Amino acid sequence: MDYIKEAKQFVNRLKETQAYKDYHQYKKVIMSNPQLLKQVNDYRKKSFQIQMEHGEGSYDSYENLLNLNQEFKGLIEGTEVKAFLEAETKFSEMITEVYDCIAEEMDFDLDFLEEE
Question: At what angle do helices 34-55 and 18-31 cross, to 10 degrees?
Answer without folding.
Answer: 130
